[in-house]
């Protein structure tokens, strides 16, 4: 059992708080992102027994007699990779209803339970769900961030800092998976990511669905990696494969359930009728995407269009990671209209606050870079908290009307 966390995990405190009042808490996220380590770190000192359903004996026993298996569990238990035994959710529901005790069950899962209604509905009102992502930059630096608070307060200060410069492609290509980051060299990290994809396809996809052509999935994931931060286009994704468009659509859904892909929905307003209503596609981790494309940091730096799109995904991931432990619920969108005005990332906090983020890989910002953010400000009026252009520059400064140019480093370093 791990006695310490090698990296800071800011989801630790929300997990501790959830265990104090929820009968069951589920940590879900991709394999190898640190779910088991966090669960055992929090649960070990509190006397939790650990059971993994990657173990064939435990899995078969739970499948054979779910109710009996649950009734014989210890008073506090960690059930790892619980998605492998779907029948267990109903048994857990019955046990919780029979004996409702906060923090009884700490579950982990490597599939998106919220996309499987039969599982999420069975524990509705009884289970709190926490999303764990690969490591955020602020966790690697062990510096608690304040970016979201500052964004919604519209209180960025005029500051000067260092550019990230040549380190930026390296951060993007490294990604956030702890096991990959522990590898001593980038070629070894690349090897880890490739093995990771193969393991996911061979093991977890088989658990989710019967697929006759498993070889399509890694190639589809690679095709999606080449389209990260672009509008989702099913026809383009399906064109290289001798598989129907609906089937490719189902495969994309499977990859989403494994947290390997994510669709960012379009933002909408009743005041506008010319919006593009297509989601954006993002690869689940930039290190994984670069590995699939065979891109290291120098080759990514040389391909400026690809670098720009991977930087947008990198920023989006950093924001969603910070949002996963943020005190207030926030929701993410993108904006594009038929006049080609766009905002890379829109963040809504409740019903009253909206903020926009534009992402640039360059070291300079001009007034024209705020075009989409200005339009967002006009549309949302008093709800508009701030619009930020994140760029790889040195100066953070106001451009008026709650608009700011902010160095990328500020995303994970508090002022």
Walkthrough of the structure:
This protein is α/β, with parallel strands linked by helices. The chain is 41% helix and 18% strand. The protein has 18 helices and 15 strands. The chain has helices spanning 12-19, 35-43, 56-64, 66-71, 88-98, 117-122, 137-141, 147-153, 167-174, 178-181, 186-208, 216-226, 234-238, 245-257, 286-293, 297-302, 304-323, 371-380; strands spanning 24-28, 49-52, 77-80, 105-109, 127-131, 159-160, 230-231, 261-264, 280-283, 330-336, 342-349, 353-359, 384-391, 395-400, 403-407. Strands 6-14-15-13-12-11-10 form a seven-stranded mixed β-sheet, with helices on both faces. Helix 5 links the parallel strand 3 (77-80) and strand 4 (105-109). Helix 9 packs across helix 15 (286-293) and helix 12 (216-226) crosses helix 15 (286-293). The two termini are 36 Å apart. The model has no long low-confidence stretch (mean pLDDT 92).
